[in-house]
Amino acid sequence: MASQGLDRDGRAEPRLKVFRLGRARADGVPFKVHILDVSKLGARLHASQAPDLGIRITLDCASVSASGTVRWVDARRFGIRFDKPLVQSELATIVAADGA
């Protein structure tokens, strides 16, 4: 049984599946990412080389820039938790961004 306020995966916010190109920066070094899913609280990303656990990164997609911390790493996929939740308009911008 799910806890109150959590979805069936135990998440406080639903994840929206997307496949968007984005850019990230870790320690001032930019790199390309694919955004695989996103919620107001975080995102699942893929990169040619994932950053280390605990690294702070900034994710840029369309006009949205969000900073956060790498919470998990699995090969080239990794998850970040944003420092502050995205507002609905920021989330909508990422979801609607051109994935090409």
UniProtKB/TrEMBL annotation:
Residues 11-91 form the PilZ domain. InterPro entries: PilZ_domain (IPR009875). One of its GO terms (molecular function) is cyclic-di-GMP binding. This is PilZ domain-containing protein. It comes from Sphingomonas horti. The lineage of its organism: Bacteria, Pseudomonadati, Pseudomonadota, Alphaproteobacteria, Sphingomonadales.
